[in-house]
C-alpha cells in the first residue's frame, strides 16, 4: 500500500495518486455502479456485480425456464447452500464444512441460540448487547419465550460492560463483531476466550464484518456465527444469510427449526426427524434459488481478494474520511461516533449530527448515498472493492457544502419515508 | 367448458377439439416452456413466465444495480411481503390483510403451530397426518421440543382417522389440503368445523392446492394456513412461502420468530420486541427480494384467472389422464393411487408401479417430466394454465411405449441422483 498523503492537507493530486496505486483498483470495474452517485451504503446493500447479474440470468433463463425441475440436480441447486457456505467460510476463517447459507440472519440467530442453550444444560442466561442490532435481541426474546427459566441480560442495561455479565449462569453470549451503528469492532479472540473461561459459548454476528475485514472464526475458537450476505458480500437485496458452527459441536447440535432440508435423508420421506450430520443440520426449508444464484456470482469475486490488502485499504479510506470531515465539517456540529483507533473500527464511519436525518436526505439528493440511523447518526460505509479515495474526497466536499449552506434546513429534507 | 370426448376411446381429433375450445388456452403463451418437453411437474416447480422474468430483470438491472438502497422505498420492496400476501390471499379466499409472504413453508408452520398453541393454553396436543409432507411433521417435532408437556399425535399411527384423534386435549390440527403424494383433497370446511367443535384450531398446508383449485379459507373459517409459491403459483425455484392468519386471531398472536420485520417500529431500533399489528407480526427478517420480485410477476398473471374455470379444466385433464393410463397401461402393473372421485382429488394424479423410479427416469429421458416419490409412486401434476389436453394424450403414449417395450429395465434408469 502507498504511504498516506499528508492528511493534514490532502489535495486532489495526492488523492489521485492514492487511487492510481490502489492494488484493489481493478475490482471496481466488476461492479455495476450508477452514474453520478457516490455510494457509501454498501454496508446496508452492496452493489451489483456483472458476475452476480450473469449468474442470475443463467439461473432464470436456462436453469429455471429451460431445465425446470431437473436443475435441482443438473445445476447443483441442492448443494448450493453448503457450497456457498464454504465460499463464505473462506472469507471468515472457517475451514470447509462448518458454514451453510440459508434463511435470514434473524432465523439463524434463533437456531444458534437454541443450539447453544442445548449444549449448556443447567445454564439459562443469554447475554447480549443493548446496542446490538435490534433483531438479535428480538430473536433472543423469542428463544427465551420458549424456554421456561431462561432469561436475557443486556450490556448497557444490566451492567455497563459485557464482561461484568459473564458468569457461571450464562449459557451463551451473542455479540456483534462490528456494531451496525457506531462501527466499533470487538476483539473476537479475547472476548471468546473470556466467555469460554466462564464455561459459556460465543455466537458472533458478522453482518458488518464479513467481507469488510479479515475474520478468523476458527483461530478465535468461536462456537457459532451468523451473518448476512447482502452488505459487504454484495449478494443482492435480502440474499440468504449464513450460519457457522464449529466442528467440535456438530455431533451434538439440536435446534428446533428442524425442517426437511436438515434431515439425514430428506427424500426418504420418513415420519420422524433425524438430523443430517455436520452443518447441514442447520438447514430447514427450500431456499430462494434465484437470490442464491446471484449470491454465487457475488462470492466468486472474492476468490481473488487478499483480505489483508482489503483491510489496509479500508482503514486508509476511513482514516481519510475521518480526517477530512473533522477538518472541514467539524465546525457544523458533526461529532465522530466511531472509535478513532484502527483496531477498534470496522469499515464504516458514523458521525452524530443533531439533524442527521435531514442532512442525509440532502446528501442523497446530491448523489452521496450513506444512511441515517435513529436518532441522530450519519452512517457511511466504505467498501474497498469499489470505493475510491476520490469518492471519499468528493463526498466530504458535498457534505461540507450542505452543512455550510444550511440547505438541509429546507422542509423537503424532513419528509420521512417508510425505510430510514 | 366443452363436453368430454368419449373417454372410452378418445382420438387425436377429439383431443384437438378440447384444446381449441379451452378457455384458458391463451395463458400457455405467457409461459416460457422448453421445446420437446411435456412438463407434468408444475406441482413440484412451476414453469417460468415472461412476466416473472421481466420483473426479475427490472429488479436486478434497475432496482438493485441502479437505484441501490433507495429501492427499499422507491420500488416498494419493504411492503412487498404484505402486497404479495394480499395477491395470494385473493387466490385462496382470504380477505386482504390476513396473508403475508416470507421465509419458507417449514418456518411458517413453526410460527403457526406456536401461535396456535399460545391461543389454546392448557391444551398440549398437536395432531397431524403420518402421510403429511414430512417437513410439516419435522417442524411439529421442533415445536414440541421447545414446549414442555407438548406432544404430537399422528393419523395413521395413533389412530386410523384424523377425526379419532380430535378431543379436548388437542390444541391444533395440522392438515395438508391436498396430499403431496396421493393427490387426495381434504374437505376443508367440514374438517375445520369438526376441529372447532372440539375447541381446537386448524392449520391448513396449501402447498398443493394454492393455484391448483379454488380455496376458501375465510368461508371455511380456517385459523391459519401456510403454503409455498413455487409450485402451482409459478413463483420460481424456492420462491418465498406465505402464511395466513384469520383476522379474529391477530390481536393475540404470539410467535417466537420475532424478528425486526415483525416489529411495530422496525426502524426505531428499540431494545425490546413489540409486535406489529395484524399479519405483519408473522414477518421475521429481511426477505430475498430478487426471488420475491419474480414471484410478483408470476402472481400478476393470476389476476385474469377464474378459479372455477381453472378447476374445471384441472378435473378434465386429470380425468382424461386416469382414463387413458388405465385403458392403455393398466396391464403393465400401474395402479391408481389418487382418489377417483372428483371432489376428493387435487390437480395431480399418482400411479403406483413396482419400478416407479426407473419408469420415471425413462419418461424423463423421453421428455415427459413428472416425478417419483418413494417408495413406488409415479406422480404427474396438471397445471391448467399451461398443460394442454394434447400434452396428456402424448404423455400417455410415451408411458405406454416405455411400459410395453420394457426399456425402463435398462440399468441406466436405476441410477439415483441427489434429488429424487
Report on the architecture of this protein.
The structure is a homodimer of 420-residue chains. With 420 residues, the first copy, chain A, is an alpha/beta fold. Chain A has two domains: 12-30 and 306-414, Aspartate Aminotransferase, domain 1 (Alpha-Beta Complex), CATH 3.90.1150.10; 53-304, 3-Layer(aba) Sandwich (Aspartate Aminotransferase, domain 2). Helix content of chain A is 34%, strand content 12%. Chain A contains twelve helices and 13 strands. In chain A, strands 2-8-7-6-5-3-4 form a seven-stranded mixed β-sheet, sandwiched between helices. In chain A, helix 8 links the parallel strand 6 and strand 7 (224-227). In chain A, helix 4 (80-91) runs parallel beside helix 9 (289-301), helix 5 packs across helix 6 (134-145) and helix 10 (307-329) packs parallel to helix 12. Chain A is globular and about 70 Å long. The first copy, chain A, starts with 11 loop residues before the first helix and ends in a 15-residue tail after the last helix. In chain A, 57% of the residues are buried. The interface between A and B is large, with 96 and 97 residues.
Q: In terms of topology, how is this protein built?
A:
The structure is a homodimer of 420-residue chains.
Chain A: H1 12-20, E1 38-39, H2 50-64, H3 71-74, H4 80-91, E2 99-101, H5 105-119, E3 125-129, H6 134-145, E4 151-155, E5 170-176, H7 188-197, E6 201-205, H8 217-220, E7 224-227, E8 242-245, H9 289-301, H10 307-329, E9 335-336, E10 348-352, H11 356-365, E11 368-369, E12 371-373, E13 377-381, H12 389-405
Parallel strand pairs in A: 1-11, 3-4, 3-5, 5-6, 6-7
Antiparallel strand pairs in A: 2-8, 7-8, 9-10, 10-13, 12-13
Helix pairs in contact in A: 2-9, 4-9, 5-6, 10-12
Modified residues (N6-(pyridoxal phosphate)lysine) (chains A, B): 231
Binding site for pyridoxal 5'-phosphate (chains A, B): 105-106, 133-136, 205, 208, 230, 260, 286
Subunit structure (chains A, B): Homodimer.
